[in-house]
Write a structure and sequence with these properties.
The protein is an all-alpha fold. Helices cover about 55% and strands about 0% of the residues. A hairpin with an 8-residue loop joins strand 1 and strand 2.
Length: about 300
């Protein structure tokens, strides 16, 4: 666990080269003991040894990519929190990983909103269906021929909707016993006035995390557009070849021929999109380079 339990607080993260992330986290989540504990857990999750692309480097890259487009979001704090949680659970199971990450966000952020000594909220766990929605792709996915999964989509839109409804029903049922944690707004201490945690914001963070399964926000979903554009910024960033190699390593269990066919399908689908990015500024920053990178990788995979 990176030795993060040896000291209490962001100072301990500096010993592991995590000072930048410690400051980033405390700026949006606060500097309480509970916030430090959640931050340490997230860092440990992102540093799991089986990861190759969905690593601390990816977390840093997404947080950095949010900055130039953050002003376009309705709730930049929720977007940044969602970036921290969006791949916090990563077992290589498309849809399920995003759902579990969203549930983790709801659970851990509720702890930060609960006044000391208030009752804990029991979370409803929704088991996703085994089918994922075809036709939506995400760049870290490989479509293996003969399998049902065709993208890192949430297990289904029905699953996400069911989970949202369950969470809302549970919050309503518990509103009389959980005090300010669910019915009011609890300030995030140490956040320099950047935000607060309340039921609405926690729900928004979970929704955004689920959205990263397919990167398909509806028009006008400003928070979703900013988060998804930041998550896809890698396509147009320097170091694309290293990203592509890392994706291959995460699918090292897939034979070469199957990987090339599946990855080529993903790349073609991305290139067929009218625009890879939803916000005008992201298109200006990354669209041209991203398409060039995708075409180059596709040519290398197919020999054309």
């Amino acid at each position: 666990m990176l030795g993060l339990a040896r000291e209490d607080g962001p100072a301990a993260w500096h010993h592991e080269g995590m000072g930048d992330l410690a400051e980033e986290w405390s700026g949006i989540a606060g500097d309480s003991p509970a916030a430090r504990a959640v931050g340490a857990e997230l860092i440990a999750r992102w540093a799991e040894p089986h990861r190759r692309y969905h690593t601390l480097a990816h977390l840093r890259a997404v947080l950095a990519a949010i900055e130039p487009i953050a002003a376009l979001a309705d709730d930049p704090v929720a977007v940044r929190l969602a970036a921290w949680f969006h791949d916090a659970v990563y077992d290589g199971r498309p849809g399920w990983d995003e759902e579990r990450s969203a549930q983790l966000a709801q659970s851990r952020l509720a702890r930060l909103a609960e006044p000391s000594g208030s009752p804990k909220i029991s979370r409803t766990v929704v088991t996703p269906k085994s089918v994922v929605t075809p036709g939506t792709v995400t760049p870290g996915t490989v479509v293996t021929p003969g399998t049902a999964a065709t993208s890192e989509m949430a297990a289904t839109s029905e699953m996400a909707a069911t989970s949202e409804m369950a969470a809302k029903s549970e919050m309503a049922a518990n509103s009389g016993t959980t005090g300010a944690a669910m019915s009011g707004t609890v300030a995030v201490r140490g956040s320099a006035g950047r935000g607060s945690l309340c039921a609405r914001r926690i729900g928004e963070v979970a929704r955004l995390v689920r959205l990263t399964a397919g990167h398909d926000p509806v028009p006008g979903d400003r928070d979703g557009e900013v988060l998804c554009d930041a998550d896809l910024a890698v396509l147009g960033a320097p170091g694309y070849d290293a990203y592509a190699r890392a994706v291959r390593e995460e699918y090292r269990h897939v034979p070469d021929e199957a990987f090339r066919a599946g990855r080529a399908q993903v790349l073609r689908a991305l290139l067929a999109m009218p625009a890879l990015y939803r916000t005008p500024l992201a298109r200006e920053l990354w669209e041209s380079a991203a398409r060039e990178n995708l075409r180059a990788e596709l040519a290398a995979l197919t020999g054309g």
